[in-house]
Request: fold
Amino acid sequence: MAEKIEIEKASSSSQNLICPLCLDIFDEPTILTCGHTFCRKCLKEYDLTHQDIDHMVCPLCREITKLSANRVDDLRLNVSINGCVDDYHAKSGGMNAVLELRPKCTGCKFQQDAVSFCRTCNNYICDKCLQSHQCMTMFEDHEIVSMEDVIEGKVSIGHQFEKCSIHKQENKDMFCDDCKVRVCLRCVVVGHKDHNIKNQSDFEQELRRKVTALAQQCAAKKAELEKNIQNIEEQRHEVHTAMQKLLDDVRQAYSIKVKELEGNLQDLIEQINELKRSFEDDLNILKSKDRQRIKSICSSITLVDNDRLGHLETDSLSAHNLLCDELDAMLKEVTDRTPAEVIAKKAQEKRFNPADASCLDLGGILGSDPKLEIMKCIDLRGGMIGMAAYTHASVAIVYYGNNARGIDIIDTAGGKERYTNIPHDAGCTDIVIQQNSALCFSTGSTEAHVYSPKGSRKATINVSGTGYLRLNISPSNEILITNSGNKVYIYDPTGSTLKHTVPTKHVTRQVSSTRSGLIVTSSCIFIKPSVVTVSDRDGNAGESLQAPKDVYLYAAVDEQDRVYVASVDCKNRKVVITLYDLDGLNLKESVEFNALDMTLGWNWCYLVSLSPGLLAFACYKKLYFIKVSL
Reply:
């Protein structure tokens, strides 16, 4: 009798030692901030589905527990429950002893150990009841299975209703969805009136169907994600192919350059490798996310797909319901194949842009982040009043004032030399160098002179006006002249014939020309707002770019008919250069480069394009060579 009492006590006490997640005796009971306890291994499996957050949400009450670097491993062991588990194991003789306790006969009143189970009566039966079933004709059609087969799991006996602890003769065959407990019919009438009541068997079947459906969806989702991973690998191959083509183009250019370009080659290879690493990282992130989703789904279904769902109690049932809902939400997430394809497309859009033949440079990678970089800052010997391109790597600077009068040729290395093929006392105000090395310079507000490369005067151009004559040349070597008025004068290369007089919308101080003959004019300083305008040779103009207050615009056209516009803010010592593409007679912004910090003496400046990758900018007593990376 004493042994029977001990067994019943062990069975009763074990109910308080059941983990709500795995429905088994606690293994390393671990406590959360809210006070609820779970097996450590169950919490670790649950945490696998939430690796992207720094906390854990309790499966029972949803309270948050902060996690440290080691996550579940740093949570406290529930010492009290752990001691009870140890005592229970010592008394019952094993971790799963509660499962091995032989049920008592429910077919008679003697409460003997059950030796069989009658599926027809739905009762456990002892030896005497078994004999009655075997001897009496009224039981001859009953289906009987051995208790050993039931314990070993060879046969299923279905659900056994517990007796109500309040109404002893009633089965707890109902489930209150509001209170999350099993109840008998009398409990429903007395204490659960107006609650949502379900048949216990129906509810458990519904939950089982839900878990089965989720398991099937898990398999389908896993297959879908695996297929997406395969797609990622295919796109990785496309990325590798595109990167290899870039590398091949760079090496082909390298083969026709001199050995001194080895440093430049290594820079380009590093850029490509960096691009490749960047794309690899992006693809690996996508792959890792899908792997993590698979892991999370598998972990979740392991937790919820439990053979002991038929024995769910209040907290356990609530936890499994929540887990099922979370898993259902994960399975409904859309698997997106496009990110990997977008990465591959970006890789394929990268192109190698060979440098101009006149530059000792391989080139750059198109599609990288565009930027400007000041290569060289050179102090001028006086105040700059005019500037023109001299070669692809040097400019001619015109000085004003008696102390610094004359012209200097300055290259990107900082080398300087005086230009002496004109009279020393000419008093230049602006200059252009023609393609045959002939020179045209202005001497004030009415005259410009054309000199041969050897220094002999060839022609004099007379233009009436009030401001200094400003000069430039077109791609076809025409001489362009402005005089701070509303006209642009276009002379043939010899300076002897006026070909066009182009009316302009605004006062014009600087002018450039495209290969197609369009005119790009800048009003520069004194006119507010400062503007840049594109017009054809008949005077038809597009919409002007307008500068903010106290900002002045200077324009330059490069060899590819792209327009660079420098916005000069002397007050804040800032220069912002923007690249525009021509859209008919309008300018369409292409790239706004990083702001440049420069020493600006006053608002009169010059911007010149020397090559597609090199600009020159001058202001007062400073000259800057600027490298362009597109």
About this structure: Residues 447 and 462 are 5 Å apart (CA to CA).
